[in-house]
Design a protein that fits this description.
heterodimer, A: alpha+beta, Uridine Diphospho-n-acetylenolpyruvylglucosamine Reductase, domain 2, Uridine Diphospho-n-acetylenolpyruvylglucosamine Reductase, domain 3, 5-stranded antiparallel β-sheet, 4-stranded antiparallel β-sheet, 12 strands, B: alpha+beta, Aldehyde Oxidoreductase, domain 3, Aldehyde Oxidoreductase, domain 4, 7-stranded mixed β-sheet, 5-stranded mixed β-sheet, 28 strands, disordered C terminus, binds flavin-adenine dinucleotide
Chain lengths: 265, 795
């Protein structure tokens, strides 16, 4: 690890100011992704701006038709939240499947969404539920937020403060864990709303994506059998030492069926 | 008489108190006055010519004390890292043994090969300076697979090793095997890969070296399974340090599995450097560094054929293997796929003729050496897979074909056609026990239940034997060992009757401090709490060959047993004097020396006291003191074995294999501490399951990059992968070790991979699947099923 300065502001504007004024500075939330890269000397920011003292990033609120989760909420808290479990059980289940207990206790929803790892779980939930990313300066809908491999619509100095999730009729998540890392080799989030169905896939490609043919089929009939025959094109899917693209494509269909099952159960 | 906890008891492990309360003393816990930090700069290329290293920028970086390279090693005329075994081909031509410089000279041969050592005041400064080193590489194509390495036109690692073949080794009667194959009613064939593994002990390797000018002595603290051997190899053969001027300490070590039983270049470099900079130096490997420098294991490609008569009796077995050695010969490297592999191909069967050819091959990968089981899991896997293939091709039940060929209990001692002679065993008894314990009778019901959920269930057997307790020195010498393989123990009885044992084996998780104390407690009748076991320090322990090859109890425990016998013998003499009786009339039982047929007696403490305060003592014929030493060199290996039965469930939709039941009935000879044996079996089985289902070291052909170079990509077995295991013992006693022990450290790892893969193949056999390579990952199984179901779909 290379030396760096450390700031722990109390107000969002202060944090934003630090980020903009110090070149090569970085936000740190749970540090579960950032700290390993520092230790391996893959990243060497001159300053870290810690979000942990910004108290207003830690709530979970029920707004009726939506649920808003503060950016600094650790995965374990979302997984255990009675409110999330009651309103969007599929999202609580997703949070419970991330990493291991230590990672779930430290890692945050804001950090996960900002990082946009192609195999992370939350992006599937955020895109699958059509959530809105609330930042220090604006609101961004999920469909416009994830821009592929670790890329998001966030501007320099922009801080995610919360994620607002519309409450679905039903939703479910199914994850096929990569054997070693236990990130998603393929994860599929399925959500049924009064006006449509959304299906979002993580792990399979360079970033989270939706599957319109499955959405259409499930809108007709919200049942696993409706999508059993829908195959995903291998174009753009990842091949690596753990799985080739055709296997990932196959798993998208299998996990989508299981996600629907989970939503129905 | 105190609290005797003897053979057969399961006290909690003595050492766990300090481990579980964070009071262990590991190399990285140690701080020396004025200590500096060292960092190794490693090759990022699999194969390259080393054109030059520009140190200038690194040398002027803050805190830097020195930067050393292969040129400095050459200038100091230091030796090459030695290989402890020299094997030969069929004509007696010795293996090719190119030098293994401790810092690369002229060429780098694997990603991770060391090119420089940077010493600075702090680890951060050393790391920062290491990044400033400019190394000029001329990159060459790499070759990483054995099949590729022996192909004409393959990149050549060494100018004088044609086709990268280190040795073309063979064992067995080739002509007899050929004759038997001509007469065979059936010949079964099998091609398989034994996947490359990375040991991943919990504690990464580390070392501290210090030079004391006042005494001209060096001390090396290192994460080693065999400190005396490091002292010998490094002192005598690499650095030219006289043995009495070199102390090697291996304190608490957090797991080894073989990874720490080699003399590594890092140890030599840091010891040499400590004198050059006249400061202690510490180096602690990162996990990533371990992946590209800890010696790897396994990595075979094998063709096997089994000849059978019409009743399914084995007539002959022929095995041709290409074994990966990596970029250089490591300490035991060439011994593992040859001497520890070929002699095990007889298994528990009466196969009359066996021939094995192993081509030992250099590639641009981390050197390959012993990893838990070392050669024997590979042999067991080939044989036990082969038996299943033959059974299925001949339509004979898998248990029945094993029974027809198994060595009956009465036939021991049994001479195999591949050198080794098994002293004792009862494979049939283990098999019978396991069939019951695994409830094989109702497997059909469980299979049907799985089928109703759309899952395929399979059962797999592995009836195996291994050779451990390394080793009889004379036998090993004939096979090419360049050292002895005995063990030593000193039993020091203090004036007040407590006991300190100095033993040459090394405890790094096996529970020796407990097991050995039980032996002493039982044999001397002293309290379990009154015995301490000292190991891992060449200044405190007389000598030793260390811990590997399931040898600690078998060889070290035997030395300890002999030394305690000597203590009792001397005690008897002292007692005879004190009790004014003839020595033959003195009995020793439960910690008391007594005159037979009388109530006159002396306690062990009284005898110890008399030995150290010899006022009333036969000084004319007996020395004072009560301390005895014994060396033990076994006359044979020991041969633990048993039967493992794995039960798996395959989800055809995703290809996921779930291990649902695991049963092991093992013959490990006398059991000293049943709890520790059970723990060793559990751990060993999990490591074997890891090889079968999860672990795989993958290199990129051409670039030589390790693609599975972290825990994110290299899948270790975890607790949630395992069902509750049913582990028990069915022991016959070893006929030549003092206590009848056989060793249990590796049996789990040796028996399990074949059981698991045989179960996976069984689960999929109705689809025409006849073999699955390890690891049986979901991706691999799914692909097999795609191919397997194609003809069905076409109908
Ligand atoms: C062993 C292990 C296993 C894991 N397994 C999984 C898994 O199975 N599934 C999964 O999805 N993830 C997994 N993770 C990742 C984990 O979920 C991380 O916590 C998460 O990706 C990042 O969250 P964090 O709070 O730790 O972010 P940090 O590491 O602190 O930050 C990550 C990045 O996001 C930026 N950032 C953080 N917060 C904000 C914000 N509010 N606004 C803008 N930018 C911000 C930081 O600057 C940084 O670039 C795993 C991690 C580890 C170490």
């Amino acid at each position: 690890m290379k030396p760096f300065a450390y700031h722990q502001p109390n107000q969002i504007p202060d944090a934003a100011k630090l980020l903009v004024s110090i070149e090569d500075s970085k936000l740190v939330a749970g540090g579960m992704t950032l700290i390993p890269t520092l230790k391996q000397r893959l990243a060497s920011p001159v300053a870290l701006v810690d979000l942990s003292k910004l108290g207003n990033l830690k709530g979970i609120t029920d707004d009726g038709a939506t649920i808003t989760i503060g950016a600094m909420k650790p995965h374990a808290v979302v997984a255990a939240s009675k409110l999330v479990q009651a309103k969007i059980p599929g999202l609580a289940a997703l949070a419970s499947m991330i990493g291991d207990p230590a990672v779930r206790n430290r890692g945050t929803i804001g950090g996960s969404v900002a990082n946009n790892d192609p195999a992370a779980d939350y992006p599937a939930g955020v895109l699958g539920l059509g959530a809105t990313i609330v930042t220090s300066t604006r609101e961004i809908v999920a469909d416009k937020f994830f821009l592929g491999l670790f890329e998001t619509a966030l501007e320099p100095g922009e801080i995610i403060t919360a994620i607002r999730f519309p409450v679905p009729i039903k939703a479910g998540y199914a994850k096929f864990k990569a054997p070693a890392s236990r990130y998603a080799l393929v994860g599929v989030f399925v959500a049924q709303f009064a006006d449509g169905v959304r299906v979002a896939v993580t792990g399979a490609g360079s970033g989270v994506f939706r599957v319109p043919p499955m959405e259409a089929a499930l809108w007709q009939n919200f049942d696993p059998s409706a999508i059993a025959a829908i195959k995903i094109d291998t174009d753009g899917l990842t091949s690596d030492i753990h799985a080739e693209a055709d296997y990932r494509a196959h798993l998208v269909t299998v996990m989508a069926k299981r996600a629907v099952d989970a939503a129905l159960s | 008489m105190g609290n005797v906890i003897g053979i057969g008891a399961s006290p909690k492990r003595k050492e766990d108190q300090r481990f579980l309360t964070g009071r262990g003393n590991y190399v990285s816990d140690i701080k020396r006055p004025g200590m500096t930090a060292g960092v190794f700069v490693r090759s990022p290329h699999g194969h390259a010519i080393l054109r030059g290293i520009d140190k200038a920028a690194a040398l002027t970086a803050p805190g830097v004390i020195a930067v050393l390279t292969g040129e400095d090693v050459a200038a100091d005329k230091l030796g090459s890292l030695p290989c402890g075994w020299g094997i030969s081909d069929a004509k007696g031509v010795p293996m090719k043994e190119p030098p293994f410089p401790m810092l690369a000279q002229g060429k780098v041969r694997f990603v991770g090969d060391m090119v420089a050592f940077v010493i600075a005041e702090t680890p951060e400064q050393a790391n920062a300076a290491a990044e400033l080193l400019t190394v000029d590489y001329e990159v060459l194509p790499s070759v990483v697979g054995v099949l590729e390495a022996v192909r004409p036109g393959a990149p050549q690692l060494f100018d004088d090793v044609p086709n990268n073949i280190c040795c073309d080794w063979e064992l067995g009667d080739k002509a007899a095997v050929e004759t038997a194959f001509r007469k065979a009613a059936h010949v079964a064939k099998l091609s398989l890969v034994n996947n490359r593994l990375i040991g991943n002990p919990m504690e990464p390797r580390a070392a501290i070296a210090e030079y004391e000018p006042g005494t001209d002595r060096f001390t090396l603290w290192t994460t080693s399974q065999f400190p005396h051997v490091v002292r010998f190899l490094m002192g005598a053969l690499v650095l030219n340090i006289p043995q009495h001027k070199l102390r090697v300490v291996a304190p608490d070590v957090g797991g080894g599995f073989g990874v720490k039983q080699f003399h590594y270049g890092e140890e030599a470099v840091i010891t040499w450097a400590a004198k050059r900079v006249m400061r202690p130096i510490k180096w602690v490997a990162s996990r990533s560094e371990g992946y590209v420098s800890d010696r790897h294991g396994r990595d075979h490609v094998t063709e096997a054929e089994l000849a059978l008569d019409e009743t399914g009796k084995f007539l002959a077995f022929r095995v041709n293997t290409l074994a990966n050695m990596g970029g250089y010969l490591s300490t035991f490297g060439p011994n593992i796929p040859t001497n520890l592999y070929g002699p095990l191909l007889g298994g528990v069967y009466m196969t009359p003729a066996i021939y094995c050819n192993v081509k030992v091959v250099f590639t641009n990968t981390v050197p390959v050496d012993a990893y838990r089981g070392a050669g024997r899991p590979e042999a067991t896997f080939v044989l036990e897979r082969m038996v299943d293939v033959a059974a299925s091709e001949m339509g004979i039940d898998r248990v029945e074909i094993r029974r027809r060929n198994m060595i009956p209990k009465e036939a021991y001692p049994y001479q195999t056609p591949v050198l080794v002679q098994y002293d004792s065993g009862d494979p049939m008894g283990c098999l019978d026990g396991a069939l019951v314990a695994a409830d094989v009778k109702s497997f059909g019901i469980r299979k049907a239940a799985s089928a109703s959920k759309g899952k395929f269930r399979g059962l797999g057997y592995s009836t195996y034997v291994e050779a451990c307790g390394l080793a009889p020195s004379r036998f090993a010498g004939r096979l090419g060992a360049r050292g002895g393989l005995y063990e030593s123990a000193t039993v020091r009885v203090h004036p007040t009757g407590q006991v300190t044992v100095m033993i040459g084996t090394h405890n790094h998780g096996q529970g020796h401090e407990t097991t050995f104390a039980q032996i002493v407690s039982e044999k001397l009748g002293v309290s379990f709490e009154d015995v301490d076991i000292v190991f891992g320090d060449t200044d405190r322990v007389q000598f030793g060959m260390g811990t590997y090859g399931s040898r600690s109890l078998v060889v070290g425990g035997a030395a300890l047993s002999k030394a305690t016998d000597k203590v009792v013998a001397k005690g008897r003499k002292i007692a005879a004097h004190l009790l004014e009786a003839a020595e033959v009339d003195i009995q020793f039982e439960a910690g008391q020396f007594s005159v037979a047929g009388t109530d006159r007696m002396k306690t062990f403490e009284e005898i110890a006291g008399a030995a150290y305060v010899p006022h009333n003592y036969p000084l004319e014929v007996l020395e004072p003191g009560l301390e005895e030493q014994a060396y033990y060199d076994p006359i044979n290996f020991t041969y633990p074995g048993g039967c493992h039965i794995a039960e798996v469930e395959v989800d055809p939709e995703t290809g996921t294999v779930t291990l649902v039941n695991y049963t092991a009935v093992d013959d490990v000879g006398t059991v000293i501490n049943p709890m520790i044996v059970e723990g060793q079996l559990h751990g060993g089985i999990v490591q074997g399951v890891g090889q079968a289902l999860f672990e795989n070291a993958v290199y990129d052909e051409g670039s030589g990059q390790l693609l599975s170079g972290s825990l994110m990509d290299y899948c270790m077995p975890r607790a949630d992968h395992m069902p509750m295991m049913k582990v028990s013992t069915h022991s016959t006693l070893c006929t030549h070790t003092p206590m009848g022990v056989k060793g249990c450290g590796e049996v789990g790892t040796i028996g399990s991979p074949a059981a698991v893969i045989n179960a996976v193949v069984d689960a999929l056999s109705h689809l025409g699947v006849t073999h699955v390579d390890m690891p049986a990952t979901p991706n691999r199984i799914w692909r097999l099923l795609q191919n397997a179901s194609l003809p069905v779909a076409a109908e």
